[in-house]
Amino acid sequence: VMSILLHGDAAFAGQGVVYETFHLSDLPSYTTNGTIHVVVNNQIGFTTDPRMARSSPYPTDVARVVNAPIFHVNADDPEAVMYVCNVAAEWRNTFNKDVVVDLVCYRRRGHNEMDEPMFTQPLMYKQIHKQVPVLKKYADKLIADGTVTLQEFEEEIAKYDRICEEAYTRSKDNKILHIKHWLDSPWPGFFNVDGEPKSMSCPPTGISEDLLTHIGNVASSVPVEDFKIHSGLSRILRARLEMTKNRVVDWALAEYMAFGSVLKEGIHVRLSGQDVERGTF
């Protein structure tokens, strides 16, 4: 399995979650053994000139916090893009570290159908309108080299158009929305044959008071005899035992009982994070 994240240039520089996940990338409990980050860099983000959007020259500079290699590649050169992506995959496979591919490209139209980019980037869009689209540019090169003929190219384009048109025609016949196709891990038995969720009734999950008392007592005790614990902690344990006796729970004890009841059924519970480790929760 190889994780690939696709980013926009403005989002890569501006979303805190990108920086946060880079810092998770090499932690023992969270690593994916290297993620390949592909940045589709149209050089203006949404509508903002980079000088007004970030403090560093490249949107990918945020990846330097983990010394990830960053490949800036001209997206108008498909062979260079393929080469760089192969190197990125090999890097990730060899060193199990994050790597970034920065596809330096442009956006031919506005950010959305309401956006007229000539208002905000007139000089850039005059240049873009003169640019030959990458598909035509590469096709012309391959035809000129004799790698493919014009007929082969046109047949390939027609074949792809046909796939899209047929799918579009079929979509009009679909009366049922198959939700489960969009779930990355469809739960068996959760949907009926038409792709609709089954009734949402929940099986009873309650447990007996005796079991709750048992969990409360265990949660209030120290498993080792003659073990000297911190006075602050022993005060918490005494209070917890008192609550269990009085059939009262606070958030922490309720959480403990929830985990305890799941563990009693032999189901593994994994807690992670600094607040868990130091016992805040």
From TrEMBL:
Keyword Nucleotidyltransferase: no
UniProt GO cellular component terms: mitochondrion; oxoglutarate dehydrogenase complex
InterPro entries: 2oxoglutarate_DH_E1, DH_E1, THDP-binding
Recorded superkingdom: Eukaryota
One Pfam assignment: E1_dh
Swiss-Prot/TrEMBL cofactor(s): thiamine diphosphate
One Gene Ontology term of the molecular function aspect: thiamine pyrophosphate binding
One GO BP: tricarboxylic acid cycle
Gene3D superfamilies: 3.40.50.12470, 3.40.50.970
Domain Dehydrogenase E1 component: 2-179
Keyword Cell membrane: no
Record's keyword terms, sorted: Oxidoreductase, Thiamine pyrophosphate, Transit peptide
Similarity remark: Belongs to the alpha-ketoglutarate dehydrogenase family.
Name by which UniProt lists this protein: OGDHL protein
Organismal lineage: Eukaryota, Metazoa, Chordata, Craniata, Vertebrata
Gene name in the database record: Ogdhl
